[in-house]
Amino acid sequence: MTPYNISPVNPNEHDSLLDIWELSVRATHHFLEEENILFFKQTIHEHKYFELVELVCVRNQNNRILGFMGTDADSLEMLFVHPDAIGKGVGKTLMNYALNTLKVRKVDVNEQNQQAYLFYLHHGFRVANRSETDGTGKPFPILHLVLE
Question: Which residues are in the N-acetyltransferase domain (predicted)?
């Protein structure tokens, strides 16, 4: 498999990121109802979450974004991979960049998102704390992970 390269995200690509976010969430966050997905999508858009983090992405040879992540200081705030690219090294490439270049040491993950939780455990993270609700107060427990 050809290694992927990390590239910056242009602000005019934020709509594409939101599309990838939604496709990824629908493929991996099976615990969310439709109304929850639409609520979070609207929240991301209205609060301009992509402008609050340092964004990078992985692109294919046609310059199409396959996955992206957003960081803030030493925290990974978001990492989403297009469903067609899941299991093909995109997430691993992003995570390695986060750990080795950006020095990320913390990440939060939905407790019900077992696939993501196991992904972070594989990369050396361990549970430091747990919240009963997410940042919006919804009943989706969050695991606060730190790098060991």
Answer: 4-148
**Dihedral sign computed on CA atoms, order 92, 27, 42, 130:** negative
Please give the DSSP secondary-structure letter assigned to residue 130: E
At 64, list the tokens: 């199409």
HEC-encoded secondary structure of 78-113: EEEECHHHCCCCHHHHHHHHHHHCCCCCEEEEECCC
Is 126 inside a domain boundary?
no
Number of domains in the chain: 1
Tokens linked to 108? 């939060």
> Rounded to two decimals, what is the model's pTM?
0.93
